[in-house]
């Protein structure tokens, strides 16, 4: 009996050690530590969205880096978007910044409003919900609109041509927390 209790205690210690190791390996998500293939549409542990930036090296080659933006995700943290959601929502993992201009593209909004994207990718829906709200458009209404009504809804979007700023741009970002409603989940 004593050896059974000792073995049980040893297994318990082993399980705890593995749990601590897993937590150390997983760590916290810092945008600056993400690579090009996981940066776009990711959210750091602090809840700030990550943005992919491109720089030209002295040798003429392009270099990509991931930076923390000032845009906060609503109720989401430590999130690296899945390839499944990127594909379902018609996005590009190599996107440099984002813009509400994408909402003017009927092919994009069709993918964004699809069951696979709208119903299964809360991070992306939250992001575009806030972008649409910033343009005065209610995303669920845009997704419900069909045919001529969809064109009418999209025509309400008046693009400013601005893209969400990177962390070192010196431009004050828009605070999407003041949007009129929350993204539906």
TrEMBL record:
Does the entry feature the keyword Mitochondrion, yes or no? Answer: no
Does the keyword Signal feature in the UniProt annotation? Answer: yes
Arranged from A to Z, the UniProt key words for this protein are:
Signal
Would you say which domain of life the source belongs to?
A: Eukaryota
Q: Which InterPro entries match?
A: PAR1
In the record, which residues are listed under signal peptide? Answer: 1-27
Q: What protein name does the entry list?
A: PAR1 protein
